[in-house]
Design goal:
Elements: H1 3-9, H2 15-23, E1 27-29, E2 32-33, E3 46-48, E4 57-62, E5 66-67, E6 76-77, H3 78-81, E7 88-90, E8 98-104, H4 109-114, E9 122-128, H5 136-142, E10 155-158, E11 163-168, H6 175-181, E12 187-195, E13 198-199, E14 208-210, H7 213-222
Parallel strand pairs: 5-6, 8-12
Antiparallel strand pairs: 1-2, 1-3, 4-8, 4-14, 7-8, 9-11, 9-12, 10-11, 12-13
Helix pairs in contact: 1-2
């Protein structure tokens, strides 16, 4: 097994971060400095001279119109407006959607949260431009075809003629909008209000709060940390 994969599996850091530590001479294998691409066996002793232990986590209310990844010229990038240095957004929330996104400097948890093999709940409030059909809840919960892919079972609560809440355990690109499109519906508002046990908790657009205490402990434990 390659040394960077080993360090990632041990949840010390991501593979990319492991490569940086190796380049800095901060990783040893059986007492000698590790090199990029080194492979280790079961009986090898791997040591890190340093690894960050104090990570930061924030719940952030992303405003509508802000890009979370790969902003183009003229678009507003989340990195430019977040008032916290050294953090990055976990996952995506498209330009016209708004609400909760988690910011952190802990690259270890990226795969644990975002890998589609893991089923972590995300909850959204949605408003459509046209009334919901009578069979909307049952069909959405069972799964609908969004272009060659049938969505996994989910939970839906209808709150009015054009309003509903949906809880997903997957995150295909523009999934909720595409699910609504199955019924010929367009979305006018799409707010993410919960990721696992992390909630907006009264945040207003553009505001953030630290995730700490029991809330953080529960969140990290659910991710295997």
């Amino acid at each position: 097994m390659r040394i960077n994969k080993y360090l990632a599996l041990q949840k010390y850091c991501t593979r990319r971060e492991a490569d940086k530590l190796i380049e800095k001479g901060l990783v040893t294998i059986n007492g000698r400095p590790a090199a990029l691409g080194d492979k280790i066996n079961e009986n090898d002793k791997v040591d890190l001279k340093w690894r960050q232990t104090k990570w930061r986590y924030f719940a952030y209310y992303k405003p509508r119109g802000v890009i979370t990844h790969s902003a183009q010229e003229g678009e507003e990038d989340i990195k430019e407006i977040v008032p916290i240095e050294g953090v990055f957004p976990l996952g995506r929330l498209d330009k016209d959607s708004y609400g909760l996104i988690i910011l952190t400097d802990d690259g270890r948890i990226t795969d644990a949260l975002l890998n589609p093999e893991h089923a972590h709940e995300k909850e959204y409030d949605v408003m459509t431009t046209e009334p919901l059909p009578t069979n909307f809840k049952a069909k959405m919960e069972h799964g609908v075809d969004i272009g060659g892919y049938v969505t996994k079972p989910c939970h839906v609560e209808v709150h009015g003629e054009r309003k509903f809440t949906i809880t997903l355990t997957e995150g295909k690109k523009h999934q909720i909008r595409r699910m609504c499109g199955f019924f010929g519906l367009a979305t006018s508002h799409l707010l993410r209000k919960r990721i696992m046990n992390i909630k907006l908790a009264g945040l207003k657009s553009g505001e953030n709060r630290p995730i700490e205490g029991t809330e953080l402990t529960t969140f990290l434990a659910s991710l295997g940390f």
